[in-house]
């Protein structure tokens, strides 16, 4: 009975208005090979996750993330190596320029964190050959107010797999060489099917069904890493943007033939996301 009550709470708790940016992103039909600057605030779920070694040392951008709810951010588990303490992180929303003084100040919101939930199966720190379960949730200390510049992305349907060739967008402040750039960039990267990406000459057995590969097979210079670790890979499904991937890992040096970028497939973790949020709400006596 209790579980039934909790299940209905979580379903009602989910944002209805998601994946619908007030400022429309530019979605060129002609793919831009090396990424391009995004229309400011057209990816309003994009998070700049920032960490400090020890306050008051300034925070530095270290990963991307996706706002999926007024209190929750979806990202990669490896973003919290080695800093796994909520007090060392803050989540900045409504950003376009990395340098805040170039953004409209009232638009940007940086919020404190009170909980980091990494997937229990993430064992990369003990075994660096295993990068499965590279997914995490971050709980904000207070709910963020939705604005024109800040709004959530939708989650995909459980188990949904985007077919090869679907154009989707990776966004972030990292460029194809793994450097940080000054304004938010986007790149349309096609999905590479599992069968191809798990061939011995590609990622072979490093690739698991809970991952997705993205890139362009015939343009090796562009098959590198875009965005930032933890950041979104979003696809427009019937006019609504859904987060299908979380940037997980790419080849060393970022650009290498037959080593496309690998993302955690969000639809493989639908139950984990709901269960983790439900457990957190239950433990914190939230909204029950
Ligand atoms: C940020 O932008 C301001 C205003 O354009 C500039 O004065 C400042 O030097 C920039 N800071 C950095 C770290 O680039
Ligand atoms: C959201 O708006 C309310 C009411 O204006 C305000 O009290 C609160 O501090 C805002 N929250 C954040 C995180 O900005």
UniProtKB/TrEMBL annotation:
This is Peptidase S1 domain-containing protein. Residues 32-278 form the Peptidase S1 domain. One of its GO terms (cellular component) is extracellular space. It holds the Pfam family Trypsin. The keyword Hydrolase applies. Keywords: Disulfide bond, Hydrolase, Protease, Serine protease. One of its GO terms (molecular function) is serine-type endopeptidase activity. PANTHER family: CHYMOTRYPSIN-LIKE ELASTASE FAMILY MEMBER, ELASTASE-1. PROSITE patterns: TRYPSIN_DOM, TRYPSIN_HIS, TRYPSIN_SER. It comes from the Eukaryota. GO terms for biological process: proteolysis.
